[in-house]
Write a structure and sequence with these properties.
With 481 residues, the protein is an alpha+beta fold. 43% of the residues lie in helices and 22% in strands. It has helices spanning 2-43, 75-83, 282-299, 310-331, 343-369, 371-387, 390-403, 409-415, 427-434, 438-478; strands at 47-51, 99-114, 119-131, 142-146, 159-161, 164-166, 177-181, 186-198, 210-219, 227-231, 237-239, 248-256, 261-263, 266-268, 270-279. The termini are far apart.
Amino acid sequence: METAVRKGLMWGVLLTVMLLHGRLQVEGRHYGRKHSQDDRKSDGLLVRNTREDSGKDDSTNEISKLSNRTTPVTPTMVFLNILDNYDQRLRPSFKGPPVQVYCSAYINSISSISEESMDYTVMLFLRQRWNDPRFEYHDYNDSITLYEKVLDKIWVPDIYFVNEKGAPFESTSGHSTLLRIHPNGDVLYSAKKTILLACPMNFQLFPMDSQVCKIKMESYGHTTKDIEIWWSQDDAVLISEEIQMPDYDLVTWTINNYCDSHHTTGTYSCIETNLFLIRHIGYYLIQHYIPSILIVVLSWLSFWISPEIAPARVALGITTVLTSTTLTAVSRSAMPRFSYVRAIDVWMMTCGFFVFAALVEFAVVHFIFKRHKKFAISRKAREVSKRLPLKKKKDTDKKDIATEDVDSPVEFQAEKGMSSPEPGHDIGEAEAKTHRTPEEIKALYMRRARRVDYYARLVFPLLFTIFNILYWSVYLSLYKH
């Protein structure tokens, strides 16, 4: 009987030990699964670490409590520990000295410079650096790099572009911002921006002008008591050497740290960059200056056409005038509506004046050439009057005097015995003139008309040459090529 009892007790103890062993194995598996899930969650955060030197070895940070654990310290643990007591609504050193924000910019491209809307598009990388004591950590000597998904949890300066007109372009890569935290609390914030900026322009020297376009940045909500913005001392503004613009050359650029804006709400810190652009004149020489010179020279061809061929000279004169007017309109088509006179306006108006003067010269020549017909009519009237009786002759003479054109004073005064109004002609010459045949009178006025054409062939090119010398000497001296 005792033996049976002992065997029962032994089996009971053995059963109890097996149950306890199975329970311990189940708890061990559950504990291991739980820790593996925590590790995967910690690795899921978009954080990467970059190796840097840190000369501090202080164990005062709260993260030192994790040193007794078997798992290593990760950037995720550091960042989550910082966020426990972090308020992104407050600036660093709140109610203390202003935050010193140092900026630098790398201009990657400048394009779409528009004279009509006075703006241009620029793509740049803006980098901002400041110190935030709340980000100091010492048990982890690497910097922590974060991306845009966690930027809403961190305070960043509220810097905006003062002369911005719009930002129509967005990054297609999906990554356009970067934030890096260093163990000593230094923060680097970099952002890629493609923006449309206003650029007030002056076109008085166009197309031999130069423009200054600004990139102006300012704090939006923090006055100089809270934030002070400065350009970095080293490489504040860098510009890509691959930038090529069809209309301009980027000559140089300057930076300015002292352009603070004063408003009723306070004084706001500001920085700016001035880009000096000089226009290429080659395009306008080909499209405007050379064609206008050819139009003016073409208008001079009418001086070599006989006054008898009036249709040819009229057609040539009107064609050159209309072409010159069209070139003037084209030169102002892509410009804003301003009231001052540009350099190219002076050129186009002067060329238009020469073309119009050539047309007026033909009108004068044609008028002189056609005067011989009026002399022929007066001569016939006098011959008829000689055949009439004396009484009728007097009446006819009166009618001739009344109907005779005011443009023929030579004949009227010659009949009365008066001297000719033309200088260098005496009474004998005037009387001889009244007795010339129609062919001689026609030849006389033909010579006068051709003499006007002869002088025009000399005067017009001479005046246009003098104008060219004055124009190019004045405006090229102001052209900062």
